Amino acid sequence: MDPDSYRHRGQRRALAAELRHKGIHDEQVLTALLAVPRHQFFDPAFQAHAYQDKAFPIGEGQTISQPYTVAYQTQLLRVRPTDRVLEIGTGSGYQCCVLLQLTSHVFSIEYNQVLFERTRRRLAAMHQPAHLFCGDGSLGLPAHAPFDKILVTAGSPTIPRPLLRQLRVGGALVIPVGDAQTQRMLRIVRESEEEFVREEFETFRFVPLLGRAGWEG
């Protein structure tokens, strides 16, 4: 694994400044991105792309998310150090590692077996203590619920009801919802056992959320 050099840290500082200029204002989120060596999620031949503010293919039809998108979703989530966080869509593991800078209680589930095995090995080599699972993330992780925060890193046609049921009262779900082309970022806060408050934010384009409560439901 490529070491984290002074040059890499300088590239992250420049990236954080770019994200701040684009409207990311949560200093804890920016500090978290500064701490995660994004180049270690890239094959050596593609590391020149690591600190550009863009998504990049990682195989299996998936991408490592654009840093702005990672920061935007994380900012909406408002993670506290004691929060239990569920991430739907581990992917490369980059977003997971950003969350781990904010709380040590991160659970992440990946649908694709090949990506899961690759990312499990990568995070182990990076000594990142996430709880990783392979399975249908659209159904959440009911055996480990409830969660204070749930973050979905793939576009869903609807808000999956299993995820709502796994939110603690007072907790929040951040999820992009829409069609296959564009999705609106939503934040759903569970006000009581039966009451949820929905907020809408910017539009994005994510890979599809696969599973029984997603695009293969």
TrEMBL record:
What is this enzyme's catalytic activity, as reactions? [protein]-L-isoaspartate + S-adenosyl-L-methionine = [protein]-L-isoaspartate alpha-methyl ester + S-adenosyl-L-homocysteine
Instruction: List the catalytic residues.
Output: 65
What keywords does the record list, in alphabetical order?
Cytoplasm, Methyltransferase, S-adenosyl-L-methionine, Transferase
Gene Ontology biological process? methylation
Instruction: Please provide, alphabetically and separated by semicolons, the GO molecular function terms listed in this UniProt record.
Output: protein-L-isoaspartate (D-aspartate) O-methyltransferase activity
Q: Which Pfam families match?
A: PCMT
Q: Give the E.C. number(s).
A: 2.1.1.77
The protein's name in its UniProt record:
Protein-L-isoaspartate O-methyltransferase
- Native species: Hymenobacter citatus
